[in-house]
Amino acid sequence: MPTPKSPTPETSTPASAAPAGGASTGTAFTRAIGLATIIGMGALAVFGLFISPADVRQSDSVRILYIHVGTVWVAYVAFAVTALSSAAYLWKRTTSLTWDRFAGASAEIGVLFMALTLLAGSLWGRLSWGKFWVWDARVTSTAFMFITYIGYLAVRGLGGSHQQRARRSAVVALLAVLEIPLVHFSVKLWRGLHQDSSVADRTHVTLHGLMLFSLFVALVAFSLLYVWLLMHRQRVLAMQDALDDKGLDYALQQRRSEGDA
Amino acid sequence: MDLTPRPAAPAAAPKQRNRRKIMSAVLLVVVLGAGLFVVFKGLTNALDYYCNVDEVGHKDGCESGRQLRIQGVVDKGSIKTDKGITTFDITFNKVTIPVVYDSGEPGGLFQECIPVVVRGVMKAGVFEGDDVEVKHSNEYDAKNKDRIAKATVEAKTCTQSN
């Protein structure tokens, strides 16, 4: 947003490449990431649907794995970034609202992708377990984490000043991120219906070579999509904050003119 | 928009404020620790989704006569279907329990040599199931490999214990 000078330095937007006359959240960087995302998703479709083999027991339903794991990967990363950004905001004398907006944007993306994880998992569960939903430790803890982060977004919307929003939500984010290890290790801590991980924290990967590579493609493609969404969303949030501040300036002006009269 | 000036925060001595901060942080850690302890120690049985076949009647929470979920591998050649009633045997740790399931076709990947979780009640040595869920493993392999590889996978499935 190039036009008005915003009152606080934090709310000035980084969208320097915006065309004159209109606000844009795109830059050369996001366009490059966007292009890479499209190529990555195309590659994932080819590998996931055609090149990777069907599973010996699950047949074609195993292909849901690439979406299920890819989306939950983004959710985990997004929530971790939310926590790190929140910590950076709370760190002594940082209190930069840019960190807060990164935290908020990342959490929104995380919630979206966790919803997709639950949806893909539900369809996969119907095909392999015979059930859309079960209350085992992994599924329940994932649902719990999903709801926690919806709560985080609600806390962000409570109102007050930007700094108040940032401080409150940062504390919630730092507590909520502790659920990631709980969800991840729930399959080891408790007996459930959900299978154990096939790649992470094990010495022997229990995934056929081409399936493993397709999963790798999925992780790269979804990570690129995450970065693209995060950059855009963070800039939109900066614009919203700037708009709020303009409203505040306007109200202050009104008050002052009342005093003058 | 409320623009009334905020009342100044009561200024505590900085040292006192620091001590209070540390105290509340310690309290938070203690509360979190206690919460985790309760979850891990107290609720582990409740959080487990099933009892293994060999634990029925031996482990706390796995008493026969009450509603249970039991887990075991479906024995090779034991599945029989007759008038909507499916019978099969499930085995875990060399203990076998016969299952009668009368709620239609078990869904999902139900087949022999695959681990399943059956919900129901143990009655006179037979487990009367009303719900069957398939607990597939975390192993994935290509479908159209040569038959020897497939046979190895199947043999492994029927003996796996996790």
Automatic annotation (TrEMBL), chain A:
GO cellular component, one term: plasma membrane
Stretches of the chain forming a coiled coil according to its record: none
Entry's transmembrane regions: 32-52, 64-90, 102-125, 137-158, 170-190, 210-231
Low complexity: compositionally biased ranges: 8-23
Annotated ranges, domain Cytochrome c assembly protein: 35-194
InterPro entries xrefs: Cyt_c_assembly, Cyt_c_biogenesis_CcmC, Cyt_c_biogenesis_CcsA/CcmC
Protein source organism: freshwater metagenome
Designated name of the protein: Unannotated protein
Family the UniProt entry places it in: Belongs to the CcmC/CycZ/HelC family.
GO molecular function annotations of the record: heme binding; heme transmembrane transporter activity
Keywords: Cytochrome c-type biogenesis, Membrane, Transmembrane, Transmembrane helix
Automatic annotation (TrEMBL), chain B:
GO MF assignments: heme binding
GO biological process: cytochrome complex assembly; protein-heme linkage
Chain ranges passing through the membrane: 22-43
Subcellular localization(s) per the UniProt record: Membrane
Gene Ontology CC annotation, any one: plasma membrane
InterPro entries membership: CcmE, CcmE-like_sf, NA-bd_OB-fold
Pfam families: CcmE
Keyword Cell division: no
Principal subcellular localization: membrane
The entry's keywords: Membrane, Transmembrane, Transmembrane helix
Name of protein: Unannotated protein
Origin organism lineage: unclassified sequences, metagenomes, ecological metagenomes
